[in-house]
Amino acid sequence: MTDSRKHDQANGAVETSLDSGNILSVSGLTKHFPVRGGIFLGQTGVVHAVDDVSFSIKKGETLGLVGESGCGKTTLGRCVMGLYPPTAGKVFLHGKNMALENSRQMKSMRLQMQMIFQDPFESLNARHTVGEILREKYIIHGKKRVGTDQEIKTLLERVGLSGDDIHRFPHEFSGGQRQRIGIARAISLNPRVVICDEPVSALDVSVQSQILNLMVTLQREMGLTYLFISHDLAVVKHVSDRIAVMYLGKIVEFTTARALYKHPYHPYTRALLSAIPLPDPLARKQRIILKGEVPSPETPPPGCRFHTRCPHVMDICSTKEPKLKPLKVQGSPHLTACHLYF
Amino acid sequence: MVNNRVCCSPETGAVFPLLQVDGLVTAFDTEKGCVNAVDGASFSMAPGTTLGIVGESGCGKSVTALSIMGLLPRPSGRIVSGHIVFDGKDLPTLSPKEMQAIRGRRMSMIFQEPMTALNPVQRIGSQINEIYAIHFPGMTKKQRTRGAVTMLSQVGIAEPSMVMNNYPHQLSGGMRQRVMIAMALASSPDILIADEPTTALDVTVQAQILELIKELQGKMGMSVMLITHDLGVIAENCDDAVVMYGGRVVERAGVKDLFKNPFHPYTKGLISSIPGLAEKPKSLLPTIKGRVPSLDKMPLGCRFSNRCPHVMDICHTTPPPETLVGVSRGHFASCYLPGESRD
Ligand SMILES: Nc1ncnc2c1ncn2[C@@H]1O[C@H](COP(=O)(O)OP(=O)(O)O)[C@@H](O)[C@H]1O
Ligand SMILES: Nc1ncnc2c1ncn2[C@@H]1O[C@H](COP(=O)(O)OP(=O)(O)O)[C@@H](O)[C@H]1O
Ligand code: SF4
Ligand SMILES: [Mg+2]
Ligand SMILES: [Mg+2]
Questions:
Q1: Structural domain boundaries in chain B
Q2: Residues of chain B contacting A208 with CB distance shorter than 8 Å
Q3: pLDDT digit string (tens) for A177-190?
Q4: Does domain B19-106+187-275+285-333 correspond to CATH entry 3.90.70.10?
């Protein structure tokens, strides 16, 4: 893929990183994983985990990223965090290209981005007390001063735990409480951007709502910007200002939460919406049952990656890739990548 | 394959329940002593209908299902009291041999993770074959193979002969779930118990599988017990529902009634804490305070009492009877709050 093409697509997709209101911008982000096999473990293929994704997030905004498992959400989040080097594309924080900053500047910039994971237990060191985990956090990031007990207790109370929990170990907590510890760890250094990767997916509904409320409240209080990743469109819709729908490594639709729910355009978004079971037996909805399952990202279908399952597939769909383009609609920008509309 | 179900009284035409669970108590021996994982569960299933069992993790849904199927882990788990009446027989009183004749033949079960039910080192075809061999010893090998192919195509597998030769790990999650459904339904059971059958699947595949179960239910006339933590799945797929909390049935009703007119504070809390699609983004959701206590720390009276916004003195001391409140016909709640009507 040439650079100029990527650039075009990035521009078509979103306001560029120059827009001062944006705190985080991603342009043409691509991540391919080599697949190794055979006797000599040579490279036999490539997983197109994320392909040419661009978006930007305004300060204080929540951008929801939704799609089914394997569509590249976690990979995208990790590339943005700098945990994976991208195959191509750039990440801008405050308009600065993260890859071009020298390592000291980058270190301090990285501190402004933190991550919350699906399974807080996996990301917490089981042998350390909560106090040690949160204190350790201060040290890892080279902050001169170690968090004081009082600071840590205040932090725990802020996320709805008790100050006394400072002496307990992660296994003594329930899933929801562990997620609170994960959140405490993410906000301990006053970040600007928090990347939340399926933060409530492992939780029961009654606990899920508690954690979602906590995240919304912290966002308001601290002016946080969220990249909120989840496979659950109802949850994403609830917390997001804008939503990007991903399918097999690509954004297929991108608009405000409201518009996405009221007027979904892409056939995949429509199917995804119709597949959410609604807790209302009297709700009448159009049910779209897709054929088959998501194809392997090792061999994404040519043309539109969704064409093998699309109920509206046309000849052009299997040969020409639809670009993510703005629809001519009233109101907020609404982008979709589908030949039906262009 | 013919089902002989005697469910209707010839004189009155009244429908008897196909399965009736009455006051089920199931206990486990644990390091912390003996705990009742199910502590009073009663409900019934009418023929050809779908009964949903809903509640958050650990509330006793799977243990209820395993109790019915006679599949409790031994020796730690046992049914302490209660009746499970199927086809005029009280299942807990049957001998292992009698139970074997029912399990897998007249009642089948599918699980969240098909790999737990499938043999990883045996080809799919031979696994289905085995089921026919066990339940229909009279069938010839050829009939069994034909049956397996038919069953696989019935569950929407496009190339059954090819899949017959596959091992489970060669299939996708959705395909494995289809194979498990094919195996469960091979014996044309009267009851299919589906324990979180779509929880591990993506939402578009979940929609396919639920649709498939519905379609096969229509074709084969079986009853389905659908166990899920997802109230949306209940609302869209069930006729009746049972809400469990802390091992007890706290509310049961027809599904429309349950969602229109929930009575138990737990049911109400659960329904309102689901993020809806229509509401304003970033609004705060109603929540249920606290969390489910572990079995050895359950409150003495109503098990929901430490989280209930309406808790009264009596709630702390005495468990409310399962059907204390008759909300309307067939709609009961286990709660001390005054009901609008009792019958
Ligand atoms: N470290 C890795 N090495 C190789 N392949 C990977 C790696 N991480 C993810 N993948 C693959 O990339 C694709 C996208 O994965 P992921 O980003 O985890 O998706 P999601 O989070 O949307 O479920 C999947 O096919 C996955 O198997
Ligand atoms: N084999 C077992 N030994 C001890 N306790 C068990 C066992 N199986 C389940 N339990 C306990 O019984 C309760 C109900 O579990 P289960 O029926 O699996 O819940 P769910 O509603 O999530 O299916 C839980 O507290 C669980 O820890
Ligand atoms: S481009 Fe074609 S295949 Fe892709 S979503 Fe649109 S209509 Fe369907
Ligand atoms: Mg992921
Ligand atoms: Mg279970």
A1: 19-106+187-275+285-333, 115-186
A2: 273
A3: 999 999 999 998 88
A4: no
